[in-house]
Amino acid sequence: MEKINEYVAKQQQEVCAFIYDLNSLTEHVQSLLNPLPEAVQFYYAIKANSDEQVLRALLPHVYGFEVASMGEIEKVRAVSETVPIAFGGPGKTITELTAALAHNVTLYHLESQLQMQRLNWLAQEQGKTVEVLLRVNPSFALPDATLQMAGKATQFGIEQSELEGMLSELSRYPNLRVVGFHFHCISNNLQENTQIKAIEKYITTALQWQQQYDLELSTVNVGGGIGVTYQEQQRPFDWSSYCEQLSALLKRFPELNIAMECGRFVSAYCGVYLAEVTDVKRNHGENFAVLRGGNHHFRLPSSWQHNHPFRVLAREEWPYPFTRPELNDAPVTLCGELCTPKDVLAKGVVVERLRAGDIIVFEKAGAYGWHISHHDFLSHPHPQRVYL
Ligand SMILES: Cc1ncc(COP(=O)(O)O)c(C=O)c1O
């Protein structure tokens, strides 16, 4: 907080910034890695925050990086020529797969028969054999979570019944070495017990296929999807209980590597988004604060339709010859500066005091903040992006 105050005190213009604390990021990731069982290969899913500084900070700690595009492959290779890269995503094109081969991607998560055919063909042309996990869209029940990518009709992965039909025909892809399966099924799961149950099901299903189809099976990727609490009443995911349960589970499967590819849980906590209140007003009986910023910088709250957690940083200076509007002990809706009623970051939240010129500090803004937002809509200046 002290560093945020120092930053704010130095600003000459309206404050609008993301501040990322790289020390807290590395301490946090180390605290996640320490209790994990040895068999876990921990990838960081860079889609959550792919800034070079973040990748450099995480590089010495994580096993590898999970990417979902050619651009992300290039970002990873810009910080390391050798770190393992796992390449996922439902839309891998010939152009992307060609670039992936050129950049020595280590593992491909393939999501359809056509992706398998494309990669096999390209690898054959180059005389290479590449390691692959097949991404499964399972038929079995999955835990509840904020977003569900599988276990139902989505564009992700290969449907379980179709996959089972393909497993006896893997020899049709001589340049793909299928070494396991990939299950990224849910996002923002806050319950460690259901996460463990899902992992157990992923592993036992993969082992059953190994036996049934006489497959090589070294790795089961259990995805990311560990949740972050954005609402006060939510109970946080208990990482230490999760690691204990995972250690007990993996003792039953000593031959397997488990890969994880977490994004949100790694980088959410390292960032805050600061936005100055530019106006406070009343409209049709409700209070609104308009911010220098909004969902073109920080789309997460409007995308998930939640009230994003925030603090008010009070500022005493008001060097103008006109009245400073303010609210006291009243509910307020925090809006961005865009010309759309969808630009809302928190709705009807009671604040003790809020004035034009104060600053809203949105917490847990390090993941899926700037990186999922439509930065140039209305051509407002971009926020400053500061790395402590
Ligand atoms: C394939 C895949 N892996 C990993 C992740 C990271 O998920 P999370 O940030 O929820 O951990 C995502 C997120 O969308 C994904 O699509």
From TrEMBL:
What are its cofactors?
pyridoxal 5'-phosphate
Keyword Nucleus included in the entry's annotation: no
- What are the positions of the active site? C339
Record PTM N6-(pyridoxal phosphate)lysine, positions in chain: K47
UniProt name for this protein: Diaminopimelate decarboxylase
Q: Which GO terms describe its molecular function?
A: diaminopimelate decarboxylase activity
Any GO BP: lysine biosynthetic process via diaminopimelate
Q: Which domain of life is it from?
A: Bacteria
Keywords attached to this Swiss-Prot or TrEMBL record, sorted alphabetically, are: Pyridoxal phosphate
Q: Which PANTHER family match?
A: DIAMINOPIMELATE DECARBOXYLASE, GROUP IV DECARBOXYLASE
Q: Which organism is it from?
A: Pseudoalteromonas amylolytica
| Transcription regulation keyword on record | no
- Which residue range or ranges hold the Orn/DAP/Arg decarboxylase 2 N-terminal domain? 23-268
